[in-house]
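If your schedule permits, I should be very grateful for your opinion on a structural question. Kindly check, if you would, that the fold set down in the tokens agrees with what the sequence suggests. Thank you for your consideration; the sequence and its tokens are set out here:
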Amino acid sequence: MSSASRQPYGVRAQRHPNALVKRLFEIAEAKKTNVTVSADVTTTKELLDLADRLGPYIAVIKTHIDILSDFSEETITGLTKLAEKHNFLIFEDRKFIDIGNTVQKQYHGGALRISEWAHIINCSVLPGEGIVEALAQTASSPDFPYGPDRGLLILAEMTSKGSLATGEYTKASVDYARKYRGFVMGFISTRALTEVQTDVTTAAEDEDFVVFTTGVNLSSKGDKLGQQYQTPRSAIERGADFIIAGRGIYAAPDPVEAVKQYRQEGWEAYLARIGASQ
């Protein structure tokens, strides 16, 4: 685990060169939360209701916008307003995985208009460096109106059983992140990756990539479709800066009480990691 990850969010925010990461750490510090809720619901009403109820307790809401049966202007406007109201970021878990020309069109434009409302996106590097280059190029274009308020996470590892996102694939993820660090915020991974040595690039002295870890659940070890869970504490101890929880929160009998519990456990684990008291 890097020395940066043992520093408080506020300190990392002050030092971080990426404007969106800086904002993310400031949100976490202000709200005392490192929770990202994965809102895998299928209607706009459900999504906006969850965002409004859980918004005060989360740093990020993660969407799969293409599973909504009624995506529309109301979805974009409503989600954007709630992000401003409750001070959280929006992460569209689109997992871009195609040639550069295609992902540029999928991200900036298209039916889902992702660049308009999603602060954070992610991609797989299976197609090679070109996918990261293409997305970074789009975000830095003079006619891109959102500029430093957008960022990319590279899907470096997955929590599903038998995942092939390991070894050379993970090394390439780190390599590309270092090469395009102006747009790449960090990783979706099960652990901190700063110690990974790549063949092409080396870590910069001020390297501080953010780690989001999926599959966090307080009460379950997995599901019948290969998902493998870990607890907020184990995720933070392995290097997660932000924990992503889905069914453990939105499918709970009382999602608000559930998110409060995840928030408390995630924050306590973070304080323990940085050596701070309650």
Summary: The first helix runs from residue 9 to 15. The chain has a mean pLDDT of 92.
